Amino acid sequence: MKSNKNDFVDAEAIAEAVERKNMRFVPIKTDDQLDLQAIHRVRDRLISRRTAVINQLRAFLLERGLVFAKTPAKLRAALPDVLENADLDLTPQMRNLIDLLWNEWKSVEDQIEGLSLELERISAADPGCTRIRQIPGIGPIVATAIVAAIGNGAAFRKGRDFAAWLGVVPRQYSTGGKARLLGISKRGNVYLRKILIHGARAAVLRIKRDRAPIGAWLDALDARAPKNVVVVAMANKLARIAWAVLSSGEDYRPHSNLVTA
Known about the structure:
Helix content is 67%, strand content 3%. By secondary structure, the chain is mainly α. A two-stranded antiparallel sheet has the order 1-2. Helix 2 crosses helix 6.
């Protein structure tokens, strides 16, 4: 921005940006991508709402001396007894509030489950989602989120560009000829990076390393790096493989994709 903002200055800046060969442009999403993106945003908001309801329930019960195990499943199993047990030190008003929150929790849970089933249905029907779901650590949620974000991956020249856009590559701060690499940059799509790292964590913990082509690499990295570093490195590799599968239009082939990615 050279001076004050107005329509003339904006148009001049756009015209100058278009003429630059190294300028990167955001591709326009299709209607299907926008629909998928909307489903993920609503589902993510509902998950945050469910967490808020659970935390509020725990806080109200803790004030009355009722403590439950950390997992939501323990609290969910105990709530019917809390509402029905007349011996507990709960006022009628507090019982009504807890019952209200309990019903809200169940309602939000049903909505999340419905959206998850819808994502499962879409991922089973979409060719791109079907191909990248063959990759260990990528399920219907991650697959649909990737397709909603990048489509066929044409916006990136290579898998590393996609991984850098996700923010799962080291942040660089180099000057004076001295290269300095820091933690991951955490740029780009926060939601996609989050669920991809969750998928990578599941793959790291559950993959049968003696049978998987990536097993030797995981064992070597696990021997010299902390667990969270291994998980993020796995997310980086999954992102590159997913881009390779989407951009090539071919099915996932473990050996060849592992080499090229």
